[in-house]
Design a protein that fits this description.
96 residues
Length: 96
């Protein structure tokens, strides 16, 4: 990813979400919604306001705001990310 030409011109860079039905991507890059993993160019996105009061779909809201500001959003299709659900720990194991 770091060898991508002009990577500093992108406002957001991210990876596609993993799926068992994923086949080889047809294109190495695409302009698409980013979720679960993204790299934020803080120099370009400093004027975009992040809505801290939004409880759900905050990633969709931020992607739409970045797109409306004219920033480039790039998804690297040759990589994928998977979230692991952890059933124990965190707030669930904290007894009050």
């Amino acid at each position: 990813m770091e060898y991508t030409p002009d990577i500093t011109q992108y406002g957001l860079c991210g990876l596609r979400k993993w799926s068992s039905q994923c086949s080889q991507p047809r294109e190495p890059f695409s302009r698409a919604h980013l979720h679960d993993f993204l790299l934020l160019n803080v120099d370009l996105t400093r004027d975009i306001q992040y809505n801290q009061n939004r409880f759900t779909c905050d990633d969709v809201d931020f992607n739409l705001r970045a797109h409306s500001a004219g920033l480039l959003i790039c998804r690297f299709n040759n990589f994928s990310v998977m979230k692991k659900q952890i059933a124990i720990g965190g707030y669930r194991s904290f007894i009050i």
